[in-house]
Design a protein that fits this description.
heterodimer, A: mainly alpha, extended, B: alpha+beta, five-stranded mixed beta sheet, two-stranded antiparallel sheet, 7 strands, about 10% strand, globular
Chain lengths: ~45, ~250
């Protein structure tokens, strides 16, 4: 089964748990909590 | 330490009994279209008592407004978004975007009635915008929203193995943007497809099995929606400029 299908077959609460694991890794690597840059957003501002 | 800052924000909103719906990137995760997002977007009820609860929740997170307009019923009800940056530990630096009205979607009370409630093993319940309303909210001027929209609908069809209630199948035929899946749906459910083609003429290309024509018509449909979104935001952006100018002048 490919990764997309595995992700899709998870229950929504399981997805929240998995994304929490990604957050742990992201923060451990020094990731910023700033929003993702999005120049196409109607409220894109610095 | 809460490893997921979004869950921290949600726990604070729950603690202060804010009537909110999780939208945007986090809702896309819940419905399987994304795996990670730093977006923290909410649609809330703009009633004064709910806004008071929201202000208390923002204060608890030391969330400061970072742009205009201020959090008020007046601005929320005409479609503006209010933006905050959190200062409390665990969520420091996280931006929270709050709206009360989404273009192309019903009023909050209807969105609330259709919401998905998600119970977490760690405790608490999340209020999430329904899949159908999330898809409607994604018809914007942004490329990434169209990518998400396409995935959200396709995932639902794939997970349900092309079988659902007639209403759900009508929704698929009305919203799906994947050429192969649309042709397959039209082949499986020809009479439903003919019915939907009256409202969404490009379905006739799916019925014919003409993938090239269908692709072209889907692109045109998307372009029309993007134009509507740009037109919707134009007066709001002008108003934002005026408010920003007034704020700069002090």
């Amino acid at each position: 089964m490919n990764e997309d299908m595995e992700w899709l077959k998870l229950a929504p609460s399981q997805r929240m748990r998995e994304t929490t694991k990604l957050w742990k890794l992201y923060i451990a690597l020094g990731g910023s909590l700033d929003p993702e840059p999005d120049p196409q957003s109607p409220f894109s501002f610095k | 330490m809460t490893p997921n800052p979004i869950l921290k924000v949600l726990s604070v909103l729950n603690k202060y009994k804010v009537k909110y719906l999780l939208i945007g990137g986090q809702a896309c995760i819940i419905y399987g279209a994304a795996e990670f997002s730093r977006d923290s977007d909410f649609v809330i009820l703009s009633a004064p008592d709910n806004l008071a609860r929201m202000r208390k929740a923002l204060k608890a997170m030391k969330a400061e407004p970072i742009y205009v307009p201020i959090l008020s019923k007046k601005y929320l009800d005409i479609g503006h978004a209010c933006h905050f940056k959190c200062g409390v530990i665990d969520v420091q630096g996280l931006r929270i975007d709050v709206m009360a009205k989404l273009r192309g979607c019903d009023e909050f009370s209807a969105l609330w009635g259709r919401r998905k409630r998600l119970s977490l093993k760690t405790g608490g319940t999340l209020n999430v915008i329904s899949l159908q309303d999330l898809v409607s909210s994604k018809k914007t001027q942004r490329d990434k929203d169209w990518l998400m929209l396409k995935r959200l609908v396709a995932n639902d069809i794939i997970l349900k193995k092309y079988k659902a209630s007639p209403d759900r199948m009508k929704w698929w035929l009305g919203e799906c943007r994947n050429v192969d899946i649309l042709v397959e749906l039209a082949k499986k459910y020809r009479s439903l497809a003919k019915e939907i083609a009256k409202e969404r003429p490009l379905i006739s290309s799916a019925i014919k099995g003409d993938k090239h024509e269908l692709f072209t018509r889907l692109n045109r449909e998307e372009a029309r929606e993007r134009k509507k979104d740009i037109a919707y935001w134009l007066p709001l952006k002008k108003e934002l400029e005026t408010l920003r100018h007034k704020k700069t002048l002090g």
